[in-house]
Specification:
Number of helices: 6
Order of helices and strands: HHEHHEEHH
Strand content: 5-15%
Shape: elongated
Helix content: 55-70%
Low-confidence stretches: none
Number of strands: 3
Largest sheet: 3 strands, antiparallel
CATH topology: Arc Repressor Mutant, subunit A
CATH class: Mainly Alpha
Number of domains: 1
CATH superfamily: Winged helix-like DNA-binding domain superfamily/Winged helix DNA-binding domain
């Protein structure tokens, strides 16, 4: 997956709100099993209605995914989209004056 500029702007817009950023971070930590919507809200101090609103916004931006399990909606981080977003930021890093610093960071990341 590769992000274009419009997708990146949409994703950054979604992440530019404190509660949504905290939600994505909580879901990244939760791993692929994810968290129920109510638990995500609890982790970031959001009411159930606020949690639903913010999670829907993040899902529209492609940063989280949801699935139904019995009576719960489980949300997970969309790791592929998050990686694509980071890739969008870094895709031209080795072409400018900061190439030495940027490319060494990229190489270290790939070795880990």
């Amino acid at each position: 997956m590769k992000f274009g500029e419009d997708q990146a702007l949409n994703a950054f817009g979604a992440l530019s709100q404190e509660t949504r950023l905290q939600m994505v971070r909580a879901l990244v930590v939760a791993g692929p099993q994810g968290l129920a919507a109510g638990l995500v809200g609890d982790r970031v101090g959001a009411s159930p209605s606020a949690a639903s609103f913010h999670l829907a916004h993040l899902e529209r931006a492609g940063l989280v995914q949801s699935r139904r399990e019995a009576r719960s909606i489980i949300y997970t981080a969309n790791y592929e989209s998050l990686s694509a977003l980071v890739g969008f930021l870094m895709e031209n890093c080795c072409q400018g004056p900061a190439a030495e610093a940027c490319c060494s960071v990229e190489s270290e990341t790939q070795q880990a």
